[in-house]
Write the structure tokens for this entry.
Amino acid sequence: MLRVGITGGIGSGKSTVCGIFAQLGIPVYAADREAKRLMREDLALIASVKDAFGTESYTGTEPNRQLLANAVFGNPEKLALLNNLVHPAVFRDFERWCSFQHAPYVIKEAAIMFESGSYRQVHEVVAVIAPLELRIQRVMERDGSSREEILKRIQAQMPQEEVAKRAQAVINNDGTQSLISQVIMLHRQFLEKSSTLP
């Protein structure tokens, strides 16, 4: 089964693009959402996080998000430690999820696909890009975050230009080009490619 990764920085419109693919009947695995679920349900992951960040990092099976955010914010070593616990659990869960899918191809949506190494789980990657000011505006409207907070989050991610360079395809979500027509064109290509896979 063909596996397609969809990535892009905050506010680029990944979820909107994935929503269009879903409307076309393509199963979408949202890595960020599933990571949050696994942090509540995966007992081995919960135990590992408690070992690394202390028992107070959980209340029962509910992660103490504020404590974890405070621990990793501005601390690259602690952030890497948390990611090194969560990412393998997500990788395993994606493999398990794929085994239940019967569509011609599936999509894995992940914000940090190249940084996390999850690009290795897919056959090709699509980058969703958008102008910086438009991304900031979208996130401000969506989350109510300040411009400064959003810029910090953008600067913590791989530059959009680098993501686009590494991807096999790019969807431009600048508001001037039809997202639907770009998705449908890729959908046709993926259907064709999926038919040639063993």
Observations:
- Strands lie at 2-7, 28-30, 58-59, 62-63, 105-109, 124-129, 169-172.
- Residues 67 and 100 are 35 Å apart (CA to CA).
- The chain has two domains: 1-27+105-198, 33-100.
